[in-house]
Amino acid sequence: MVPQSKPEQQPVGTSEDTGDPTETESGANAPEDTSTVLPEIQHIRWLDPVPQLKKATLIVAFEGWNDAGSAATMAAKHLSKHWSCKTVANIDPEQFYNFTSTRPVVQFNKQPKRTLKWPSNEFKVARLPQGRTDVVLLIGVEPQLRWRTFCDRIIATAEVLNTDSVVTLGSLLAEVPHSRPVEVYGTADNKTLRTTYELSPSTYEGPTGIVGVLASACREAGYPTASFWSAVPSYTPGTPYPKAALALVNRAAAVVGTSMATVNLERTAFVYEREITQLMEKDEETSEYVKRLEQAWDDVKGSTLQINETAESEADANDPVLENDPTTLLTEVEEFLRDTKEED
After folding, report:
1. Please, what are the domains in the chain?
2. b/e per residue, 218-234, with b = 16+ CB within 10 A?
């Protein structure tokens, strides 16, 4: 079931989006079923017949090591809700988790009846008539065991769902101020993706999480793959950071070529930023630290803005000018991964 070789493909779409910016996308709906015969993929549990999708983009986010501030999974859940995605399959957790590390949760359902909630990895799908592609979302929890097998099952399922490209989402702790726009760093090894979305090839060496392993496996299987990381302030660990999620939502929506209403997420991000500012003002030491970060950010962006303005006046109109400093953020990615590894 796993594709062995795919030629380098065009990125997911090249046309203008005409979608309406509503909270639930106009025209987005659950795909029609095409067969009542369910594919047999070990560890994959199908909840519905395989849906009919045009070439789809697989967007992936996992809780855990690569999800600082829960930004990646928060973004994926927002996309799922906005696109009215339908869950069609999940991964049996039995072979992939150490349940003494990732424990099941006891809860009550609507009856109410006492139930167990196990680590969940769900495939959700939606047709996007206004977008460049349909979408398959995989929202889950980083496993502890058998990562290669875990990735093989994901790729086999992606093939069944007519996936032709992959986007992974992640978030990391970085020395950035909460009061400035969120940095999003994108990488891709595929030349067409790099050109279309102004991405950089990854030069990172060091420990990685399931996001990195899956991205590598998808590339080896022939899928054009891009990764987007948002930066979360290091002084807000352990709390959800909707501002970083919002940045990832906007990048993911741009890739599939659809508009995205984010009013609720923007409102949440605004309130959260205001609350952080109020807390920082009560702590003189932290407040001074944040002011230094703001000054450093402004200095870098001010210099970048001046350089860009000069370049735009002298360069060809076809020459791309990067909005962000990928080298700076890449350094933050490396430090985050290494620091987290040392803490473990």
Report:
1. 44-262 (3.40.50.10900)
2. beebbbbbbbbbbbbbb
